[in-house]
Predict the 3D structure of the following.
Amino acid sequence: MRILSGIQPSGTMHLGNYLGAVRQWVAAQNPEAFFCVVDLHALTLEIEPSQLRTQTWDTLASLLAAGLDPAQCTLFIQSQVPFHTQMSWLLECVASYGELTRMTQFKEKSGRQEGYRVGLLTYPVLMAGDILLYSAQQVPVGDDQRQHLELTRDIAERFNNRYGEVFTIPVGVQPPAAARVMDLQEPSRKMSKSLSSPLGSIFLLDEPSAIEKKIKKAVTDTDGEVRYDWETKPGLSNLLEIFACITGETPAAVAERYERYGDLKSDLAAAVIAELTPVRERYDVLRADPAQLASIAAQGADKASQVAGERYRLAASAMGLI
Ligand code: TYM
């Protein structure tokens, strides 16, 4: 199965990234799967160059620690494969301004700052290129990327109608639970790398004591009944989704096992700690060996370039470029 997905190195990976996306990647990895650290995407918002560099390596090490294996899949850094930016230009000449300004993430992020970058508007086109370059059939992502996936499909179909069948039309795949992990303190807002409240996000590299504290302090409600119900119990339902994703149950089935919030929270904390501790331990070893990380990235970029180059040349030629 041809698969592609990516993650921005814009901060420390959190439980939403891990459960919504990366855990699915690990389960789905195969020789036809491509995963990338999308450093070009991180340039759409303000970021210190030194911070971007460090976080790119941090993110690569986190993906390896989470279980991606370069012997089983291709793992690379987006900017090391220049076909991504080249493809993005071709697709900018297929996408329309109107459809880009309608993107929810663009509206949210551009509304928060004056003089936002053009890249913030064109970002979903770069993402479409990431996917289409690899003829991905499936794109495992969290729920917040659904609209970008739809746009990718629209762009690919338009291209194929206009210039001939060059692109595979991809399908987005979400996990059955935890496709949208919410902030533990503000369950109306998704868990995010940048905007969360201090206790709102669990990070991949959090110590067990921090994980426990954040889950114990997670906002719930005062009615005391353990029930899966996003309408009236968003905080609790979020915890049930996280739990269900880790154990492979449904959130409702988890709810049935508990009568008290406190017991649910203790067991959930133990489950999250058991899931993340080996990841954190592997991370420390991997991050301490920058030469090995660089070599993995170089090999990944090599493999990715071969596949991406072929699709880029077909697209460019279909459009009339010599
Ligand atoms: P990014 O870096 O914001 O997030 C990486 C992945 O994590 C998922 N995710 C979540 N899932 C559940 N709950 C949450 N709170 C949560 N927050 C984030 C995201 O859905 C994503 O799957 N544009 C993308 C990166 C990208 C990409 C691509 C993805 C660039 N090119 C091509 C797929 C294919 C992004 O900003 O993800």
Remarks:
- The radius of gyration is 20 Å.
- Residues 290-318 form the longest helix (29 residues).
